[in-house]
Design brief:
Order of helices and strands: EHHEEEHEHEEHHEHEHEEEHEHEEH
Distance between the termini: 30 Å
Shape: globular
Number of strands: 15
CATH class of the largest domain: Alpha Beta
Radius of gyration: 21 Å
CATH architecture of the largest domain: 3-Layer(aba) Sandwich
Number of helices: 11
Strand content: 25-35%
Number of domains: 2
CATH superfamily of the largest domain: Gcn5-related N-acetyltransferase (GNAT)
Structural class: alpha+beta
Helix content: 25-40%
Length: 353
């Protein structure tokens, strides 16, 4: 009979073959490179915990026909340390797709973690997750976009038809003339941008987010590894990161985003002291404008709503779903009411399979 067991190093070739059969896109098309990345992420990550393993569904011959990756993480909930299972790469052989996916998720949700978290789920995964007792985190499942060079940004949404290309070409002189001026609302409020280091993030996040119920539990070594993975995800552009300080040198917050020059930048994380989120966000917008971006986009956080409303930003439900599961109703309630810090750095979004 088929069975589920922990993922082992010698399963990697079979799981790589399964992934190449299950997904058309890969940032690492060569089997050897993809296999090395599987080993690096699931067996060499700094949070490795054998009690929270990735899972394989194997047929009677022992061949992997289903897989669910798990990257253990740590968080704190009102000062209590929680074990988090970040899930990724749910896949199954077409001949076993229904049964394998269901059994893998059931086994995951029955594990010893305090919270399961997935943040790039599609509609099929969402329906399966909810059917097995999981929840959708509604606010983080929304996406936002803030235009910085509005004419060029909205022009890019016209598509790639012949008519759209002709129209864009005709409007190019006007768009460059209008977009050559920074928006009137753009400002930095005198904040100084310093290099953002793992030490700064690990040391200051608890103070910045002291009134947030659920937040990540960072340490310098793990952050150094995580930032290295982010910097290697080059398909989205250059990783921009800065720690922001006021005139007195006090840390106000930081930002991390990808700058795809002349295009849309993707925000990874914004952290700010209470009452200073708007200042940090505007400093990030200013930096993105000077980098030549037409707009920034990211996962919605409640603090961002008034800023977007004033700056003609947009909120949509067009991206992936954020899925959560916990045996603790108080943890789930905190997530649903927005009393949780769940940036793209906390889930699977930063991975680059």
């Amino acid at each position: 009979m088929a069975k589920i067991r922990p993922f082992r190093l010698d399963d990697i070739p079979g799981v790589v073959a399964l992934r190449r059969k299950s997904f058309r896109h890969s940032e690492r098309p060569a089997a050897a490179a993809l296999g090395a990345y599987f080993e690096h992420v699931f067996f060499r990550n700094p949070w490795r915990d054998e009690t929270l393993p990735s899972l394989v569904y194997v047929d009677p011959s022992g061949r992997p026909v289903g897989f669910l990756g798990v990257v253990p993480r740590r968080a704190t909930f009102r000062g209590e340390v929680l074990r988090v299972a970040v899930t990724t790469q749910l896949m199954a052989d077409p001949e076993h797709r229904g049964v394998a996916a269901i059994e893998l998720i059931k086994a995951l949700l029955a594990g010893g973690q305090d919270l399961c978290f997935a943040d790039v789920a599609n509609d099929s995964s969402r329906r399966l997750w909810e059917g097995l007792g999981g929840d959708v985190a509604l606010v983080p499942s929304l996406s936002w976009t803030q235009p910085l060079r509005a004419v060029r940004y909205y022009g890019s949404l016209l598509g790639d038809t012949v008519g759209a290309r002709v129209l864009a070409l005709g409007l190019r002189p006007l768009s460059w003339a209008i977009d050559g001026f920074a928006p009137a609302w753009l400002h930095r409020d005198g904040l100084r941008a310093d290099p953002l280091t793992p030490e700064t993030m690990a040391r200051h996040l608890p103070a910045l987010l002291h009134d947030v119920a659920l937040r990540p539990d960072y340490d310098e070594t793990a952050l150094a590894w995580l930032l290295e993975q982010l910097a290697a995800k080059r398909a989205l552009g250059e990783l921009r990161r800065a720690a922001l300080r006021d005139a007195g040198g006090a840390l106000v917050g930081w930002y991390l985003y990808y700058a795809n020059r002349g295009g849309l930048g993707q925000v990874v994380q914004v952290a700010a002291a209470k009452g200073r989120y708007g200042d940090v966000a505007h400093a990030m917008f200013d930096d993105a404008w000077h980098c030549g971006l037409t707009a920034l986009a990211g996962r919605l956080e409640p603090q961002l709503l008034p800023i977007l409303a004033e700056r003609a930003g947009a909120v949509t439900r067009a991206g992936p779903w954020v899925l959560v599961h916990s045996p603790r109703p108080d943890v789930l309630a905190a997530i649903q009411r927005g009393d949780a810090f769940l940036s793209r750095l906390e889930g699977e979004w930063w991975l680059s399979f």
